[in-house]
Amino acid sequence: MKVSSQNQAVLLLAVNGLFLLASALSGTFLNVYLWKSRPDFRMIAWFTVAQQLAVGLSFWLAGKWVKEHNKMNALRLGIAVSGLFYLLVLGLGTTSVSYLWPLGLVLGIATGLFWLAYNIVYFEITDAGNRDFFTGWMGLLGSLTGMTAPWLAGWLISSMRRERGYHLIFILSLSIYGAAAILSFFLKKRKNEGEYDWKRPWNELHRVGSHWRLAAASLLFQGLREGVFSFLIGLLVYIAAKEESKLGQFTLITSAVSLVSYWAAGKWFKPKFRSAGMFCGSILLVAVITPLLWKVSYGTLLLMGIGTALFIPLYMLPMISTSFDLMGESAESAENRVELVVLRELSLMTGRLLGMFVFISVLSISGTPRIITLLMLILGAAPLGSWWMLRRLLPSRQQGDSA
C-alpha cells in the first residue's frame, strides 16, 4: 500500500474511532434511558426495528449519491445526523419513549449514511493483503472506546442526580461527533466511478455461480444474532445490577478482553486459518451463553461477556474480510463495490429484522426469564449458520500450506 493511502487509512481509522467513542459514550445507555421511562423489552425491540429499517433503506437509497457524487459528504452527514439524534433526545427528555419510531428512523439514517461511506472508503484504501490487519485495528479501536467511554458514562450517571448524568453524556457525544466531522475534512475526496445500478444487489443474488449467494446467507445468520444481542445484553446487565455504573464496569471489563483478543487476532490470525478459526469461534460463542441457563445474574452475564469478547474475533474477522475480498475478486466487482456494500448491509438488515421479529413474537406469548435465556441460546447459535454457508469461500489451512 502506498504511503499516502496508508496515511488516509490511519486518518479514516481516527474518524472511525471518534465516531465509535461518541456512540459508545451515549449509545450504551440509550436503551437503559428509555427502559427507565417504560420497562418493556418489546418497546426497545421495536425501536431497534425502526433503526434497522432506516439503516437498510439509507444504504440502498444513498448508494447512488455515494457512487456518483461525493461519498465524503455522505460520511459527514452521517456524523451530523448522529448529533441531531442526541439533540432530539435532549429536547424530548423522558418523553422520548413516545417518539421511538421517528427517533429510531433518525438514528438509523445516521448510522446508514456513515457506515455506507466508511465501508466504501475502507475498501478503496485497503487490499486483501492488509485487510485483516486494518480490520484488527478497527476491532482494537472499538474495544478501546468501548472500554473507556461506557465506564466513564456509567460513573457520571450514577454519581449525578436524576437525568443530569444522561444529559451530560449526550452533550459530550455531540461534541465528539463535531470533532469527528472536522477531522473528516482532512480525508481526500475519492473519485466517482460510473452510474449506480439500483438492481445490482438483487441481480447478484440471482446470478448463477455468484459467491455472494453464500456470503449473503452467512451475513443473514450474523444478523440473526446481532439484532437481539445488540440491545438485550446491556439491558439484562442493568436489570441484574440495578445501576448504570455496573453496566459501565461490565463494558470496561469485556472491552478490555476484546482489546487484547482483537490485537492478537490482527497480529496472528492469518487468512489460511479463517475456516477452522471461524468454526471454533462459532462453537465457543454458543458455549459462553450456557451459564445463563442456570442463573441470570451480573456474574453469569459477565462470564458470558468475557467469553464473547475473547472469541468473537475468530468469527468476525473472516466475516468482514471475506465480504470485502469478494468486492475485489474481479475488476467488475470492484467497479460495483457500492452496490455490493449495499447488498452486504441489506443481508445483515434482513437477518437482524428476522431475529427481532422472532424475539417480539416469542415475548408476545411469554416473557419469562427462562424463555428469554433459551431464545438467546437459539439466536446465539446463528454464527454456526454463517460458518456453514461461508466455509466453501474461506481459505483452509491445507490450501494455505500448499500455496
TrEMBL record:
Record protein name field: MFS transporter
Pfam families (UniProt xref): MFS_1
Keywords for the protein's UniProt record, in alphabetical order: Membrane, Transmembrane, Transmembrane helix
Membrane topology: Multi-pass membrane protein
Keyword Transferase attached: no
GO molecular function: transmembrane transporter activity
Main subcellular localisation: membrane
Domain of life per record: Bacteria
Organism expressing this protein natively: Paenibacillus monticola
Membrane spanning residue stretches: 43-62, 74-93, 99-121, 133-153, 165-187, 276-294, 300-320, 341-365, 371-390
UniProt-listed SUPFAM superfamilies: MFS general substrate transporter (SSF103473)
Subcellular location: Cell membrane
A GO term from the CC aspect: plasma membrane
